[in-house]
Amino acid sequence: MGAYILRRLLLIIPTLFGIMVVNFTLTQFVPGGPIEQILAELEGEGDVFKSISGSGGDAGISDSSLDVGSKYIGARGLPPEAIAELERQFGFDKPPLERFFTMMWNYIRLDFGESYNHDQKVLDLVWEKLPVSISLGLWSTLIAYAISIPLGIKKAVSDGSRFDTFTSGIIIVAYALPGFLIAILLIVLFAGGSYWQIFPLRGLTSDNFDSLSLGGKVLDYFWHIALPTIAMSIASFAGLTLLTKNSFLDEVRKQYVVTARAKGLSESRVLYGHIFRNAMLIVISGFPALFLSVFLTGSVIIETIFSLDGLGRLGFEAAVKRDFALVFGTLFFFGLIGLIIGIISDLMYVYVDPRIDFESRGD
């Protein structure tokens, strides 16, 4: 197993390289890069050249208005020296291939550049925002599993009953509702929208968080995270519940279950001693996909609605503002987290069923 884990860890390197190649290539065809964003911000601000000098040094140009025929939309009125200075600051004066390998060399040295929009190192920004997104993703995934597994088992045991039919209707409705709609509904009902002011509307902690006791901090944290976590969990637990139920129903019909019952084992012993281990394999296999779905897609919407300063919201804003250094940095960490979770999923396979041996696959 150790050799398999080592191979998987080593495969992270070429996989991340491939991810960055694709992302870097795509950004070369996206209109409105960081220079375009700066030119749009400077448009109509009067002292354009002073703003340029303040963002990265004195370009050494006079306050004149020349039409340079630049390739950048919105560059009319800027002399070529100003455009050249902006290109130099962002590295666009070099060929794309050279820029890419320079970026990867810097990544090897853990230098992810600096966000021009936040005027802060990308690595510092990621470490600052990452705990919020991971916290939301983990709690939502754990809650989804905590609800789905017992509910799915109960539905499988009572297949076709009124309980099964009633809960299936609820699950279908929950699965059909998008996460952002559930979030808005929760805000309207419980965050002072139109009814009750029970939970806070924004942020992960209160303003007086530092002055609270340890118990007060824990309660304050869960008080703030309750609605975002519920909004992210509802859609996730719906599909997972049906997956658990169908997995158990498939195992119930197999011969080893008939044999176990014929030996006189109790129903609970058959269910949790034999069926559970085999049925849970397919459920566990969905853990990485569920976590990544919550972490990558759900977090962007939920963090925005509840004003949570997480990595998903940071990456979305970076993409909108064409902050390429921050875009590449967040995509790198998203990819790295996804690959590591895949390895953890394999380890969970072995923990649930020791008969699985990835070592013998030679892959």
Automatic annotation (TrEMBL):
<feature type="transmembrane region" description="Helical">
    <location>
        <begin position="165"/>
        <end position="191"/>
    </location>
</feature>
<dbReference type="InterPro" id="IPR035906">
    <property type="entry name" value="MetI-like_sf"/>
</dbReference>
<keyword id="KW-0813">Transport</keyword>
<feature type="transmembrane region" description="Helical">
    <location>
        <begin position="221"/>
        <end position="244"/>
    </location>
</feature>
<dbReference type="GO" id="GO:0055085">
    <property type="term" value="P:transmembrane transport"/>
</dbReference>
<feature type="domain" description="ABC transmembrane type-1">
    <location>
        <begin position="130"/>
        <end position="349"/>
    </location>
</feature>
<keyword id="KW-0812">Transmembrane</keyword>
<protein>
    <submittedName>
        <fullName>Microcin ABC transporter permease</fullName>
    </submittedName>
</protein>
<dbReference type="Pfam" id="PF00528">
    <property type="entry name" value="BPD_transp_1"/>
</dbReference>
<comment type="similarity">
    <text>Belongs to the binding-protein-dependent transport system permease family.</text>
</comment>
<feature type="transmembrane region" description="Helical">
    <location>
        <begin position="279"/>
        <end position="306"/>
    </location>
</feature>
<keyword id="KW-0472">Membrane</keyword>
<dbReference type="InterPro" id="IPR000515">
    <property type="entry name" value="MetI-like"/>
</dbReference>
<dbReference type="GO" id="GO:0005886">
    <property type="term" value="C:plasma membrane"/>
</dbReference>
<keyword id="KW-1003">Cell membrane</keyword>
<dbReference type="GO" id="GO:0042884">
    <property type="term" value="P:microcin transport"/>
</dbReference>
<keyword id="KW-1133">Transmembrane helix</keyword>
<feature type="transmembrane region" description="Helical">
    <location>
        <begin position="132"/>
        <end position="153"/>
    </location>
</feature>
<feature type="transmembrane region" description="Helical">
    <location>
        <begin position="326"/>
        <end position="352"/>
    </location>
</feature>
<feature type="transmembrane region" description="Helical">
    <location>
        <begin position="9"/>
        <end position="30"/>
    </location>
</feature>
